[in-house]
Design a protein that fits this description.
- The chain is mostly helical.
- It has 25 helices and no strands.
- Residues 457-497 and 515-526 have low confidence and may be disordered.
Amino acid sequence: MLAWIFLPIYIAGQVTTMPEYLRRRFGGRRISITLAVLYLFIYVFTKISVDIYSGAIFIQQSLHWDLYLAIVGLLAITALYTVAGGLAAVIYTDALQTGIMLTGSFILMGYSFAVVGGMEGLKEKYFLALASNRSTNSSCGLPREDAFHIFRDPVTSDLPWPGIFFGMSIPSLWYWCTDQVIVQRSLAAKNLSHAKGGSLMAAYLKILPLFIMVFPGMVSRVLFPDEVACANPDVCQSICSNPSGCSDIAYPKLVLELLPTGLRGLMMAVMVAALMSSLTSIFNSSSTIFTMDIWTHFRPQASERELMIVGRVFVLVLVLVSILWIPVVQASQGGQLFIYIQSISSYLQPPVAVVFILACFWKRTNEKGAFSGLILGLFLGLVRLVLDFIYVQPRCDQPDERPAVVKDVHYLYFSMILSSTTLVTVCAVSWLTDPPSKEMVSRLTWFSRHDPIVQKEQVQPAATLSHNGIPEATDTSFQLEMAQDNSSKAHSGDGIHKQSKMVKAILCLCGMEDKGREEAPTRMEAVIVSLEENPIVKALLDVNCIICISCAIFLWGYFA
C-alpha cells in the first residue's frame, strides 16, 4: 500500500516528513506539532526501548552480563555507529545484514525442524512442553490449545480473529504507510519504480518470519521448557531477570544452543548489528522530526550547526528516557514483548492512521475535522494506556480484579473502537465546517496527485526547510536553504578565531567540524519528483504485487 497508494501522494506533494505532509494538507501547525510529539512518544514506547531491550537480551544470554550492563554496551557501540554515518550507512549495512540473517535464519530453521521431527513433530511435542517447576494444580505455563491457528475465538482467545483482521490492520497501516522511519527510506529511492521494488522485496521478506522466527521460537519451547516456558516468578527472575516470564529469550536461546560455534557467533553478531542499525535509523528519524517540526517552530532562525547539535542532544535524551522505560516493558502484558508492542500501537496509532487515510482520500477533510478527531482519539487512547499501566495484568495464578474496560475490552477491539470514533469525528466536523482551499488539496490527495504544480506567490520564510526535494539521506539531515545565509552572516568580518579542544570535540561528535564554516553546505539531491514509470517495469511490478498478495492470502487461509 505504501508504494502503490501512499507514496505517489507524498511524491506529488514533495514532502519529506509526515508532519510536513499534514501541515501542507491542512495548513496551520497544530496538527503537525501534535503529530511530531506523538511520533516521539511512540518511538520511545514501542521502538527505542524495545530495540534496546531486545538487543540487551541477546547480549545477556550470550555473555551472561547483567541486563543494564548489556544495555550500556549496546548503546556505546551504537553511538559510534551513529556518529560514523547516517541514513545511507544504515541502508547499506541493512542490505548486507539482511542477506547474512536470512542465510543464518534458514539454517537455524532447518536445525530446529530436524531436531523435533518436522512440522508434525512440532505440533505433537509443543503441547507437551511444560516446565518442570510449574504447579500441577495451576494452568500457568500451559500452551494454548489454539497455538497453531491465526484466527482464534473472538471472545476467549488472546488474539481474537476480528481484532486480528480489523483492529491490527489500522496500526499496521500507520507503521508501513505513514511512519517516518519507513517512508523516509522509500523517499530516498531513485524513482517510483525503485520504491515499489523495495516495498515488494520487504513484502516478500515479511512472509518469512512465520517460518524462520515463529516456528523456531515454538521449537525453542519444546527443547528448553524449563527456561522458555518457566512458570515460577522466582525461577524466571533468575533465568532472564523478568519475573513475568521468559518467552522473550526463546530465539536467542535457540541460536546459542542449537547452531554450531562459528555460525552461532555470526548470527549473534548480525542480530545485534541489525538492532543497532534499527536504532540508528530511529535516531535519525526522531532527531529530524524534533529539529524540523518542533525546534524550528520555536527558533525559526536556528542555524544548521544549532540544529545538528540539538538533534544529537535530543537523541541522548530519548535514549535516557527509553532506558528508564525498560522495566515497564519487562513487566507489561505478562512479559510478552510482541503483545506489549501491539497493545501500545493499538492505543496511539489508530487516530493518526485514520487522519492520514481521510487526508489522502477525501478532499473534504479539513483542518478542524482532522484536529478534532486526532485529539479525541489520542485522548481516549492515552486514557486506556494509563489504565493498562495502573492495572497491570495479573499472573495466571492470581485473580483478575482490573476494571471491565481493561479486563474485558481486548486491545485489538479497542483499536477498532478508537478508529471508528476518530473516523466519525473527523467526518462530522469536516462536514459542518468550511471545506479546505484548493491549494491544500492540489497534489496532496490520491485524486489530485496529477494536478499541475501551482506556483505560490508568497515567499517561504528564510528559516523554513526547503521541502522542495531535500531527502534525509545522510547524517546531515537537517540542512536548510538558509544555511548559506547563516554561514555568511555568522561571524562576518571576524578572523579565524581559535576554539578550545572541548568545543572542537563537541563539534566533531555532532558532525560539525570547523571545515563546515569555510565550505557552504552543498544542496542534496532531490527526492523523487516524477510519478512517471517505464511501462514494462510497471507491469512487472504490478504482477509481482499480485503474486505477493496471493501468497499472503494463501498463508492466512492455510493457518486460519
